[in-house]
From TrEMBL:
Name under which the protein is recorded: Glyoxalase
Transmembrane parts of this sequence: none
InterPro entries found in the cross-reference section: Glyas_Bleomycin-R_OHBP_Dase (IPR029068), VOC_core (IPR037523)
Domain VOC as annotated: residue spans: 1-113
Length: 124
């Protein structure tokens, strides 16, 4: 599996205030979206998340988000090393994702940005 990059997850109380800080630190502009009841801003290599504690407590269990070339390939490689796929693969606004627990207990999200043949995002 090709790991293309890593994003760090940061839970914040005030998303708007945090966006200003992380935009200044990274020089990147925030891309905002919703994930259930959680407001998310992608800023450089950071995913800033704010929302109900019940949802954030689940998200805090995921160590990091890893961008991969292909989620299907990730499933095969993860399964081969004894990881448990605990969610997904599922479509997202930008591709697909899955959550896996590695044999050591670490939990990671894997995402791809698969495109369909017309150049649009593939969602399934």
């Amino acid at each position: 599996m090709d790991i293309l990059g890593t994003s760090l997850r940061v839970c914040v109380g005030d998303l708007d205030a945090a966006i200003g800080v992380y935009e200044r630190l990274t020089g990147a502009e925030a891309i905002r979206f919703q994930r259930g009841g959680v407001a998310v801003a992608a800023v450089g290599c950071f995913f800033l998340m704010s929302g109900p504690e019940a949802e954030l407590s689940v998200l805090r269990k995921i160590t990091a988000t890893l961008a991969v070339k292909d989620v299907d390939e990730a499933v095969a490689d993860l399964t081969a090393v004894g990881a448990d796929i605990i969610a997904g693969p599922l479509p997202t606004p930008i591709g697909r994702n899955l959550v896996a627990r590695h044999p050591d207990g670490s939990v990671f999200e894997y995402v791809d940005r698969k495109q369909d043949q017309d150049g649009g995002q593939r969602v399934g």
